[in-house]
Amino acid sequence: MTREQERAAARRRAVKVDAKRAQKEREAQRNRQVAVVVIAVLAVVAGFVFLTAKLNNDTTPAAAPKATTPSATTPAVAGCSAPPAPPSAAAKVAKPDKATAAGKTFTAVVTTNCGDITLQLDGAKAPQTVASFVGLAKANYFADSPCHRITTEGIFVLQCGDPLGGTGTGPGYTYGIENAPKDGTYPKGTLAMARTTDPNSNADQFFVVYKDSKLPTDGGGYSIFGTVTGGMDIVEKIAAAGVSGGATDGAPAAPISILKVAVTEKKA
User: Which CATH class is domain 98-266?
Assistant: First the structure.
């Protein structure tokens, strides 16, 4: 082999070595790019999973307020004992005939874990509402039911009547508004029915006004069916303890539950 041929062979070997080196470099670069893409995809997937979990957590409805028992964080309220556990279900009751209360006056003694609250019910002005309240009381519907709401700003009411603490669907019937003030004025001591935006959704929930309040008149207002004649100090001390968690509308920080309701008709 001549010198020229040896030099040519050497050049060919060098070219092959360079080609192999270049091929390996290209493969290494491609592997690095694939790794970057994989890492980026994993990061996106992880971010998506985290965001989905976060959104699902943020949009989960909060649990409805339930009756609580006094604890180290519950304000001590003089005269109150630990409330009972609420019922696991609410009874269904037939709708009472308003004629059973029309033109009549009743006294209702609401025994709570904080003492007795006495009500006078006006069947002359709100016969269907009073007939319903009396019927539910006689059916023992209110037994062990927590008063699930207190408001301490704007309007001032203690709301009770649902055995399931505001999460129930009522006694199985509803009825319309009676004796609602057109100006939305509800003086201290007023006993009235709670409802949804539907004016025909009156059922079991009622409220006691513990400080003069102006309530919305949209939809027809709220049925006044009686007054508090005794035990307002109980409602006031529950209100003074505030709302659980420090809000202005929600479950009472100092739990109060209805143990039983006894109703008698007042004779002329």
Answer: mainly beta
